[in-house]
Amino acid sequence: FTSTREFQIFEAMDPCIPIPIPDKQLEDLVEKAKDYALMHGICMRQKDKFDRDALHFAPFVLFPTPFPRDEYYKSLKLQPILNELMHKVAHDYDFLKESLKHTIKVDEFTGRLWNIYETIMSEGGPTQEVDVGLFRSDYFYCCSNKCIKQVEFNTIASSFGCVTSKLVQAHKYVVAEAGHRELLKDIPDNGALEGLSGGLIEAWKIYNKPNSVIMILVEDVTYNICDQKFHEFEIRRQCPDVFVIRKTLTELASRAEMKEDKTLWIDGQEVAVIYMRCGYHPDQYPTEKEWEARLMMERSLAIKSPSIHYHLAGTKKVQQELSKPGQVEKFLGDKAQIDEVRDIFTGLYSLDHDEVGDKSYAAAIANPEKYVLKPQREGGGNNVYGADIKPFLENIKDSEERNAFILMDRIQPPVTTNYMVRPGQNAKLVDVISELGIFGYVIGDKNTIHTNKHVGQMLRTKLSHVDEGGVAAGLGALDSVYLVDAGRCCIK
Predict the structure, then answer these.
(1) In the annotation, is 145 catalytic?
(2) Catalytic annotation on 11?
(3) Which residues of the chain have a pLDDT value below 50?
(4) Model-level pTM?
């Protein structure tokens, strides 16, 4: 979750319903909401008290959060365009190489991913030409621009689509129980679970071997278990013919094999599709064996989500390069679409050791509160903010490590109030901001896109005064969209 230190002076937004509400009504609604969450799998395992056999409800806010209607529908319309853009970027070797040429020398993790990509390309390119991308584009509504601005584009392990699909129904229930059924028409349904699962099934059908399986690549210990398992259950519901297995990178390293025909097998089962919910962070490759397993995956006939080139296309440096004048035009031909994409970009700046990078460096040193510093990492908790930027940059001023970071303009979202509900705590009335994520999937090869669509959304809401807003960490919560006119969203 992106930090609030990216933001400027707060502007306000009225909540879904007038709050605070009377204590007795609050207590009643919170109890109902907790029970709904527990009984519908809106849950996680607790990190501090891990128990494989126990779940707690995932942190959530009691009421859905307002979001401007026109900008919400714009984000849905944009998703297939962004899917196409990132699909084409991922298949452009020269663009990826030029974008990442400095980063891969100083960022070891991105460098290791690049080495796998180079190995695959030196062997004649991917054995499996078809890719399936389960993507998510994240936005804030920016008060100063009166429109959505993209925070990032996720190409690997995009989470919370499944549990937020369930949470929408919970929020509709709570709003109705609060006596506001007239608002239900403005809480849009969320098809992320059905859509993302359908994308994996479509990829499995393209592989076209009835006895093959879909493999979800998972962490050694999974806390966000419901979000992952709902995929498995939904796949089996939609397509009883396909089995789903869960394996770790370490299990793959020790027990998987790639046969002469490049098929990938583990424990006697042929793998048709690999859905990666792991592999996006250096800690998930504890030894060389895990890296060897990743290379074996990429060499195999299995359809990957994501492939190594999709993974690289999702780096922050590629995002920054795409924001440069003339770059989106290399991949999209429709001028209206190009303008729509460019309109969601916020300021993204290189910090490379050249004239442009030095100018960005100087701007960040002079006004650090206007920016956020981002490395090439997924999973949150990696950015540098506000007053911390100046000493951090001064420490790496003459180092090549500068090339591993990009600079981004901070965004100014509206602040609203809501009740945050967490396990073992009383509901708290807090000031919050919200980040919208739009899910989509694309299936295709280098020359052709077979399927391209948006499938759903999520909203993550966090305390307005803190840096990081991780749901599991205690600073953020799951949420749903309540559509309103834009005039309600940024009140000074």
Answers:
(1) no
(2) no
(3) 2-8
(4) 0.94
